[in-house]
Amino acid sequence: MDRDSSDEDDDRRNLTYRNDTTRSSFNVEELEPQMRRRSKLTFHKGYLFALVLPLLIVSIYFSTDIRSLFTSDISSFKFNTVSGQIRESQLQALQLLNQQQSSLLSIWNHTFVNSNNITTVQFDDIKATLLTQITLNKHIQQILLSPYKAGDTLQNGTALDPSSAGYSFHRCRKVDQKFSERRTIEWKPRRNKFLFAICLSGQMSNHLICLEKHMFFAAILNRALVIPSSRFDYQYNRVLDIEHINDCIGKKVVVPFEDFMKLKKNHAHIDKFICYFSTPQPCYMDEEHLKKLKSLGISMGKLEAAWKNEDVKNPSRKAVKDVEEKFGSDDDVIAIGDVYFADVERDWVLQPGGPIAHKCKTLIEPSKLILLTAERFIQTFLGSNFIALHFRRHGFLKFCNAKKPSCFYPIPQAADCITRMVERANSPVIYLSTDAAGSETGLLQSMIKMNGKTIPLVKRPPRNSAEKWDALLYRHGLEGDSQVEAMLDKTICAMANVFIGASGSTFTEDILRLRKDWGTASICDEYLCQGENPNFISGEE
């Protein structure tokens, strides 16, 4: 639970040479002998000379003398000599930089040919560091060349631009999902054959994963899927675009509960209610939920278990033939109990775009209103280059410490992990999706810095009428809905350059699904402090 971009200023310094102009002075003492001799002259001649002498001195003083001109010429000559030396040094530096760049590009092409001993991420880091040096080399050359307006051409070589020469490399580039290699199944519902989705485990993220698996089951069984009522489950139409699913498939494959009840004239009967799991509780269904179903006008028979010993804590792997064998039926309406933990054709289900043939990027995605709001928020606060962080804390300490290893990290350790990702992704800002207290996020913010600069953690601000990025939600009455806000958070995270998630969180897993399906997944995406153990773990109760 996004890839620091900093501005580089070109400092140009002009040396100003000031020439000292030496003015020659007229020595009065040299005239004293002459004045004594001239005293013998007649009075009127001495008086006339006394008047002329000061005028002569002033005239000579303010005139430009030969010494001054000579001194100026020497200074100008010296300046031209120094300027020539500077220019010669700059050209020599450019030639050396050009030679260095050629060597770096040669290393780029020929190094790490046998790179079996390093991971893909390590190899990418090395290449990215190398490209950074090539780019820096190019930048220095441009600065040295700028006073002469000589472009990128040197007398003895050419300053190559790595990106224009085909050496462009993005350390956190997008993952090639190979959509064309997807293995898919056609979803062709039989007339008046329905599958009633039952999803009861966990929060909204769990239910969305459960719903996606139900769609796969419905495609295998050739049935239309009935989306549960908001009186029994979440109000899916506030966060999902239900008709988007039908449009992507090209036929009516999902039916809102209200439309289903109209078809059944407000009295529907579930012919078979089959539980995928039998332990610890059949269908994950308690008496309260059974009463809710009956209050909706739904009648049903006895709950049946597909397998006697299928446990949610240790689900066995199943194939399509197992689903067809256990859930295949000619009955009009069947219900399958919670399939969130079901492990059916895992590789098929988890592939980009999912297991069902369709013409879109993904079937289950946020509503159009949420998508547009996310885009407006990004344009307002984040820009195109940001990291998204899902920082799960509330109730996570006990949950993580029950796992081996724990996934709950002290703030300083988490800050170090995040800072390393900022450096790697070169992103100037982080979007923070969290349930953490202000004391935790405040400390986290103070510790995430790069090159002495604080990297801001941006959260969605409270509603402000002066801001228009969330106006669509406000106008459509979706403001303040916790599920809408959660889906908005997921959408923003799914659009980030890089995503840091919380291990063990289904909220994170749903974001990773969207990133995978939308093609926004990065090779830098990872769980917080992935591969590390917390440097301190508390004892048990």
Automatic annotation (TrEMBL):
Gene3D superfamilies per UniProt: 3.40.50.11350
Keywords recorded for this protein, A-Z: Carbohydrate metabolism, Endoplasmic reticulum, Fucose metabolism, Glycoprotein, Glycosyltransferase, Membrane, Transferase, Transmembrane, Transmembrane helix
CDD domains membership: O-FucT_like
Membrane topology field: Single-pass membrane protein
TM segment ranges: 46-64
Molecular-function GO term, any one: peptide-O-fucosyltransferase activity
GO biological process, one term: fucose metabolic process
Pathway(s) this gene product operates in, as recorded in its UniProt entry: Protein modification; protein glycosylation
Pfam families for the chain: O-FucT
InterPro entries found in the cross-reference section: GDP-Fuc_O-FucTrfase, OFUT2-like
Keyword Membrane: yes
Major localization listed first in the record, in broad terms: endoplasmic reticulum
GO cellular component: endoplasmic reticulum; membrane
Compartments it resides in: Endoplasmic reticulum; Membrane
Record family assignment: Belongs to the glycosyltransferase GT106 family. Belongs to the glycosyltransferase 68 family.
Name of the protein in its database record: GDP-fucose protein O-fucosyltransferase 2
Source organism of the structure: Gossypium anomalum
